[in-house]
From TrEMBL:
The keyword Metal-binding applies. Keywords: Isomerase, Metal-binding. InterPro entries: Aldolase_TIM, Ribul_P_3_epim, Ribul_P_3_epim-like, RibuloseP-bd_barrel. One of its GO terms (molecular function) is D-ribulose-phosphate 3-epimerase activity. Belongs to the ribulose-phosphate 3-epimerase family. This is Ribulose-phosphate 3-epimerase. It comes from Oceanobacillus jeddahense.
Amino acid sequence: MIVSPSILNADYLNLERDIKQLERAGADAIHIDIMDGRFVQNITWGPPTVSAIRKVTNLPLEVHLMIDKPEYNIKHYLEAGADIIIIHQESTIFLRKNLQAIKQAKVQAGVALKLETPVETIVHCLDLIDVVLLITCDEGFGGQVFHPQALYKISQIVKLREMRHLNFSIEVDGGIGIETGKQCKEAGAGRLVAGSFVFNHRKKNEAIQALKSL
Ligand SMILES: O=C(CO)[C@@H](O)[C@H](O)COP(=O)(O)O
Ligand SMILES: [Co+2]
């Protein structure tokens, strides 16, 4: 299992320290939630922070863009050094065009779906997608409850992947801990994002290793 801790629950005045801890604890990537206060209520960071993080870690940076009209901003996150850029299906009418822009830069492209958004809404783009990110909570904040209705969506996307002979990854994000991570794995997820579970744990390495070995 690939584990990508979210730094939404990190100490923002000590991001470098927390990221180094995640590195030592065996994180496979760093998940960075970008929120603009419009697409979601919360506001976090922008390209300068991603660029600063790029300088202190070699771990892949997975940038989850929770912003309206990402077409205006994708190039800034490419320049900032993102390795995976995930855009929301609900945030743009130019989904294919945006994914193409990411792929052209030789960066992995992902699409995220809010809990209520059906998987059918991305079937026309599956050929361009490296990662499908299924949001498993009410997006925008860390530490929220996992919604089991997302498990059905995982199995639906697994079926679509088989039918189309594709090999994109399926990642889940929101309320992931041991039990929910296990359920998602059984449904077919191969990547887990975990924020509060890792940051609230006394030992980040134990939390990450427990998720990795699910
Ligand atoms: O995208 C988001 C929230 O919208 C996440 O990446 C959260 O940071 C996950 O946090 P936990 O639910 O694991 O605490
Ligand atoms: Co996220």
